[in-house]
Write a structure and sequence with these properties.
Helix content is 31%, strand content 27%. With 228 residues, the chain is an alpha+beta fold. Helix 3 (123-139) runs antiparallel to helix 5.
Length: 228
């Protein structure tokens, strides 16, 4: 009995992510700019050196140092950085990037995520991740959206699972970051999984899911399980 031939995908090259404005109810993402965002970001993250523990750069000693790093991000072409701007303040409180962009295979990673203390555990932070994922799957047509982090970074691993990414394993001795070994935890969402993830996000983000004090009525992870 002969094996069944694989079904051709008729796959076509997808466009690379580009600097873009993405707007939601509680947050906007904008192309990261030293001129427009450096001062607000310094106010949001200055003095919080722990935020840089698992990032490949930082902490920065001065606003000028952070500004220069942002300028380098603007000038680069391999990654696309977006500032995260909560609607409640209209000031940048973090950033994230599209990285490891593989147009031929329809794969892209979200990474280099910096969330200030004021942005952590907020609706705006979650909506920012939703907007970035939706753009990749619905506007650009990618097949696979990845999340990777230091295997020791438990908060990042919890965030990935909460946001609907599936854990795929550990790449041992994958990288050297700041002269330290990094074992990398891999997570991903696939295009055929996105519709259920999207429904979970939108159910959680709906204003009716929050009480008068802004507290969630149901958890996103529970919504993801229900929709999956």
């Amino acid at each position: 009995m002969s094996a069944q031939a694989p079904t051709p995908l008729h796959w076509k090259l997808v466009p690379a992510p580009a600097p873009v404005v993405l707007r939601g109810r509680t947050v906007a993402l904008e192309p990261l700019s030293a001129e427009h965002h450096a001062a607000a970001l310094w106010q949001a993250v200055g003095g919080h050196d722990e935020l840089w523990t698992y990032l490949g750069e930082g902490p920065f000693a001065t606003e000028a140092d952070l500004r220069q790093a942002i300028k380098q991000k603007q000038a680069g072409t391999a990654l696309v950085f977006l500032a995260i701007v909560p609607a409640s303040t209209d000031k940048a409180a973090g950033y994230a990037s599209y990285m490891r962009i593989d147009q031929a295979n329809g794969v892209v990673e979200v990474g280099n995520i910096l969330l200030s203390p004021a942005l952590q555990r907020t609706t705006a932070a979650t909506e920012a991740m939703y907007l970035m994922a939706r753009h990749i799957f619905e506007d650009l047509g990618y097949r696979r959206y990845e999340w990777k982090c230091n295997a020791e970074n438990e908060p990042s691993r919890r965030a990935a699972r909460r946001l609907g990414f599936t854990f795929e394993g550990i790449f041992r001795q994958h990288m050297v970051i700041k002269d330290l070994n990094r074992d990398t935890a891999w997570f991903a969402v696939l295009d055929h999984e996105w519709p259920a993830r999207k429904r979970a996000f939108e159910a959680w983000l709906d204003p009716s899911n929050f009480d008068a004090d802004g507290r969630q009525r149901s958890r996103l992870q529970a919504s993801s399980a229900a929709q999956g």
